[in-house]
Amino acid sequence: MAVPVTMTEILRTIPSEEQLGFGTIFTNHMFVMDYETGKGWHSARIVPYEEFEASPSNMTLHYGQAIFEGIKAFRTEDNRIVVFRVNDYLNRFNRSADHLCIPRINVEEVKAGLFQLLETEKDWVPHKRGTSLYIRPFIIATDPYVGVKVSDTYRLFIILSPVGAYYAAGFNPVSIKVEDKYVRATPGGLGEAKTPANYAMSLRAQVEAKKEGFTQVLWLDAIHRKYIEEVGTMNILFKINGEVITPALNGSILSGITRRTVLEVLRDWGINAVERQISIEEVYEAHAKGTLEEVFGSGTAAVISPVGELSWKGHKITINNNQTGKLAQRLFDYITGLQQGGESDKFGWVETVTKG
Ligand SMILES: *Cc1c(COP(=O)(O)O)cnc(C)c1O
């Protein structure tokens, strides 16, 4: 069941693949759908990517009732357009919706709309290894009302952005500040939802860390300021004494699809991968004993991001000589190989949308 399409009259040209960065260029069309209490989700359609009008009293602008996702489509070596674990992302979208009192979507319906949009925009999926078409679904509340309540109307958008290879110049391990002043999320809060509020929470710490020369912050739990949570755009993994440890999901950590992918791949390789509480002291003690072998982040944008330095309360440690670890490199090569078709899809994570 295809949705109606309004083609744009102003076709933008597709940028050269060398120029691609992240998140600034968007394709010609987007998928849109509306919600109204009593009517449900309706009027799915593909329309030109363009500005839209909102009331100055739009509730999202005032109270932040909104959610989003971040998914990728790839062009494979044999020229198919594929998506990676798309159902997992769309199911997480619904779990985020529950946290924000936003009505759930029908995953199959939105997925069909996404596939139709990708078919329309397939020429925008770049070719080079490491490049992709970033998919950003999001839902905003649209009631014009400046009182605090749950909105009765919503709009879902899916916009697409071609992105360059994250590591065009090769891996570059990042330097991370372990945040001991600010917190990102609290027990019982919104930490496991993909919602703008969590990013609003993180900006000040991020600005201060940048000023101090760090790339990112690593968040600790809000109560004890002791247990490791995540990086805020990525989950975090530690290789200690041959075993990979990542903080267990506790409600304030975002349940990353890449995190899950990494854990499943590691277990498939016969490497012990455990999810449990892990404190920053434990990481520093492992470093002191010489058993902290690797640290790396996982997320859709970068896939794997090696960490070269951690700094906690002014005490800096260097991991693996500030070099990319063997396991981080192997995971990156294998997962990107799965995504762009070089590796056979033994896990059933890759779905073909259309011929390229
Ligand atoms: C999206 C996100 C991640 C990474 O999740 P993936 O599904 O792997 O992309 C990690 N932390 C936060 C806060 C996020 O929003």
UniProtKB/TrEMBL annotation:
Cofactor(s) this protein cannot do without: pyridoxal 5'-phosphate
Any single biological process term in GO: L-valine biosynthetic process
Lineage, opening ranks: Bacteria, Bacillati, Bacillota, Negativicutes, Selenomonadales
Gene3D superfamilies in the record: 3.30.470.10, D-amino Acid Aminotransferase, subunit A, domain 2
PANTHER family documented for this protein: BRANCHED-CHAIN-AMINO-ACID AMINOTRANSFERASE, SUBGROUP IIII AMINOTRANSFERASE
Pathway of action: Amino-acid biosynthesis; L-isoleucine biosynthesis; L-isoleucine from 2-oxobutanoate: step 4/4; Amino-acid biosynthesis; L-valine biosynthesis; L-valine from pyruvate: step 4/4; Amino-acid biosynthesis; L-leucine biosynthesis; L-leucine from 3-methyl-2-oxobutanoate: step 4/4
Record's keyword terms, sorted: Amino-acid biosynthesis, Aminotransferase, Branched-chain amino acid biosynthesis, Pyridoxal phosphate, Transferase
Molecular function as annotated in GO: branched-chain-amino-acid transaminase activity
This protein's name: branched-chain-amino-acid transaminase
Source organism: Propionispora vibrioides
Catalytic activity: L-isoleucine + 2-oxoglutarate = (S)-3-methyl-2-oxopentanoate + L-glutamate; L-leucine + 2-oxoglutarate = 4-methyl-2-oxopentanoate + L-glutamate; L-valine + 2-oxoglutarate = 3-methyl-2-oxobutanoate + L-glutamate
Family the entry assigns: Belongs to the class-IV pyridoxal-phosphate-dependent aminotransferase family.
The protein's Enzyme Commission number: 2.6.1.42
